[in-house]
Amino acid sequence: MATKTKKKAAPRVRVSNGHKGLAAHDHRLGASELRRIAEKIFKLSEADEMEVDVSAVTSALTRFANNTIHQNVAEQGITISVRAVVDGRTARASTNKTDEDSLRRVTAAALELAQVQPRNPDLLPMLGPQKLQKVARFNAKTATATPADRARAVTRVCKMADAKKQTTAGIFSTGLSEFALANSRGLFEYYEDTRAEFSVTMLEKDSSGWAKATSAKIDEIDADALAERASQKASDSREPKEIPAGHYVTILEPPAVLDLVGFLFYDFAGTCVLDQRSCFTGRMGKKLFGENISIWDDVYHPLQLGPPFDGEGLPRQRVRLVDRGIPVNLVYSRATAKKMKTKPTGHGFSLPSEDGEAPFNLVFSGGETSTDEMIRSTERGLLITRLWYIREVDPYKKVLTGMTRDGTFLVENGRVTGAVRNFRFNQSILEMLANVEMMGPAVRASGEESFDMVVPAMKVRDFHFTEVTKF
Amino acid sequence: MKHIANLAIEKALAHRATYADARVMDIRHRDISTKNGQVGRASEGESLGIGIRVIADGAWGFAATDRLAPQGIEACVADAIAIAKASALAKRHDVVLAPEQSFVDTWQNPFVKDPFRIPIETQIAVLLAADAEMRKVKGVTLAEGSMSFRKIDQLFVSSIGSSIHQVKMQSGAGIVATSFAGEEIQKRSYPNSFGGQHMLRGYELIEELDLVRHAPRIAEQCVALHSAEKCPEGKRTIILDSSQLGLQIHESIGHPIELDRVLGMEANFAGMSFLTLEKLNSLRYGSEIVNVVADARLDHGPGLGTFGYDDEGVPAQRTPIISNGLFTGYLTNRETAAAIGQSRSNGTMRTEGWNRLPIIRMTNISILPGDRRFEDLIADTDDGIYMETNRSWSIDDRRYHFQFSTEIGWEIKNGKRVRMIKTPSYSGITTEFWNSCDAICSREYWTLWGTPNCGKGQPMQTMGTGHGASPARFRNVKVGIASSD
Q: What's this model's pTM, rounded to 2 decimal places?
């Protein structure tokens, strides 16, 4: 493969002396370089319309376990994805090779694939230039973080675990991504962001604790504080006792809420309702949740990440999905909106796609009650740190099953009285959101089952735990 | 490929790496899907790059790039070395690898028809024909189909002198009928849920699956499920079809035997395992008739876990995992084998692509066939439920407690299937469940299923794994808890 020529010649990796890691530098290709690649493809095209997505990623992840770094990786790559439209037909081909021959080949492949498709009656002409609201989600310090930066933070956490006679495991990752969308009607949109993520587990003989945070800004990641929190959870959850499964008043910390409500996101897609597989099919405009539940999709929220445009380049709109317990709006791609006789909201996937669209920036309204207040107000209930292996059991009742993990506590008479063995739950999320008694302020939460969202801690009545495991 | 990989090794050694390996991977894919009579997705793609793994200062470093000119390779090696030196900041001891021979070899899985040479319009036509058959059945509200093909051309080179070229061709397809009625969504899939069947084969697999012929049956069953009985609650005898048993093996045997998980390396994300080291060769994992192997050899079949060599250059092997019910083996790599005093890795290091570090992954984890005919198993069951095709699955982070539900079930009374059951579910504790197995069907009913979507690692890697199974019977299993109020 030939190498790419870069207008902005960022210095490539140099190894510094000693153990300081990579010299800090910015790996961005930049909007003009991504535009140049797209324009090269437009010149090669014989299709009626062409669309080019170019994404470039540089990321690194330091992984630790047993109080040492055991995996430590970095990657750098580019993907060029070309969509051709010919005579009402469309298809996509992609490559990571940027030499002239490869670009010619991927362009021809998209065209050839399109030509043999059946005509797509839902296909709309590509968009012209759009006016976008600016978002700033690139942080130079995150982009230039080095292996040594990550290793230093991890080393401190490992030493903390040693000092507390605990075992730690986790990750510290940093990275940047760039994305450009261009089409032959003159649309060109560019987005760049950075991401730092720290996730830590602390283990003792019969207990564990966990904490995690993500941000565009590495300075907002406090690895030591997260490790302290996980450590405290591990020591608080020693000697868990078994209590029977059943319906409990349950206080869910934000990551636990996130991983549950994350299963709702595609139900808000117009296509999902059109396909009659959304839990909102036949239920729009009806009171489903408590008065205290309002949900937005809002890519412009200060705690959110993501581009302000969708897979076709349409600007993303802020959409009120649930208003005081009533699902009031869905999100729509252009084609879905046309089919459902409404206006698109800028949430479409890249085409061609049978899935249509989805909201990826959910923001819950939240409340003002602290988790401590929720505990103080609880006569008997459970406090949940994190959930695990959540799967959908019933898509219309929206019953999910999964396990608690890394800190499950019994609350009695307004205080945490000890740890309990982990439970399996089978719980309808629709019922859960109708049973929310208290909420904390909405925060950017990170789990493992869903993408990050802005959600609050919740105190819920009658959460259904069905079985107990052995630890 | 070779000069790129060799350059990487040469440069790594020049940077005083004590070990280095490089994987150049050229991956090509084609994905097609249809929905309600229209093409949903039609795409092709290719991705070429190199992943370089080194040991320097006694610690691991890994870097990957798609910049394959000499200066790109040199920079990537420098990244890997710098990362290894950063890893060494927190090391407890130097990395030790179990010994392995060097190999110079080529390997390719056999296939009859190259799926990339079959016109895409032919493949779309098959999916649309199956789609039309499903939608002929009144009550089907959604008909979907998909095919995916992947060709992985890879070269592994290491500083111990290995140079291994492998080509893997993978094909898969499936269809799904969904029906919404009243307050209920039901679905039926063929030949398996979540993408169908996938194997290391060519387009002949898709032809053998004969999606169009099976479409009316699953569509009719899907609609009929609305009027089926709800799964009862309580303890029952259950019989699992081979695809569901394959997933049961995946979750409750395949993952807990990963030695990296046992040793705590996955504790933050995927979790750990109840199979702590003292249980090797002492735990009664299952009943006497349960025999499970990890087998990556082609002799076992062209599964998604079949290869010539793993991604650290160790030849494909067959490892007894459960032998007449006794727990006898973990999945290991060179580092973890050395850590527990074993003389050699059993060859399970696999990577999703050039940009990912190889980690311990399942190969083909299969239960060996028993001696029963399926018809006899049903006839021999007085009161039970036969469950078919997975619908949901969940297991705790040490792999003790699981809950599965399937798309469809049939109540068995006095040796006969008597009525359909909707969304049957069962749950239990892994070792109790496998010890309750009292019958396994014979080779005639055994299928090597492919699970194309197994997630593990940070950054997450998706891997295909194989699971051979035939229908089997389990006694005294808790059923129906998923739909309890």
A: 0.95
